[in-house]
Amino acid sequence: MAQEELVKMSEKGQLVVPRRIREKEGFKGSDRFVAIEVKDGVLFKRVEIPEVKIEFESLSRDIQFHFKKRKVKQSDIDDAVKWVRQKQE
After folding, report:
1. pLDDT recorded at residue 54
2. Tens digits of per-residue pLDDT, 25-36?
3. Is 70 helix (H, G, I), strand (E, B) or coil?
4. Predicted TM-score (pTM) above 0.85
5. Residues near 46 by Cβ (< 8 Å), separated by ≥ 6?
6. Domains within the chain, CATH numbers bracketed
7. What is the tens place of the pLDDT at every residue in 45-58?
8. CA distance readout (Å), 34 to 19, 28, 46, 57, 86
9. Residue 1 pLDDT > 70, yes or no?
10. CA–CA distance from 82 to each of 21, 56, 68, 86, 88 (Å)?
């Protein structure tokens, strides 16, 4: 059965999860949570970020493959970045 504990929001908008809950749920300081508005308040749900990292690494490999296939050099990328920055000025 769920146990309720009173927490207080700081001036910076921070809430402290009680130690008993942190230990029971295995929460760590680096964990990320999504805040979901519900009828009677807010629900905080821990989310896993590795999926984003895996997707980024996959995308990075694809880009490297296509650059290598088209023989794109670092100097080509540097020149393209300079060109875009000049256009923005």
Report:
1. 82
2. 999 988 989 999
3. coil
4. no
5. 25, 27, 31, 32, 33
6. 1-47 (2.10.260.10), 50-88 (no CATH)
7. 998 877 777 888 88
8. 20, 15, 6, 23, 39
9. no
10. 52, 25, 21, 6, 10
Q: How far is residue 21 CA from its own chain's centroid?
A: 23
In one letter, which amino acid is 47? V
DSSP category for residue 3: -
- In eight-state DSSP terms, residue 61 is H
d(CA 24, CA 49): 21
Phi, psi of 66 (to 5 degrees): -70, -40
The tens digit of pLDDT for each residue in 69-81 reads 999 999 999 999 9
The Cα 5–Cα 2 span in angstroms is: 10
Q: How far is CA 26 from CA 31, 35, 54, 57, 71, in A?
A: 10, 18, 23, 27, 48
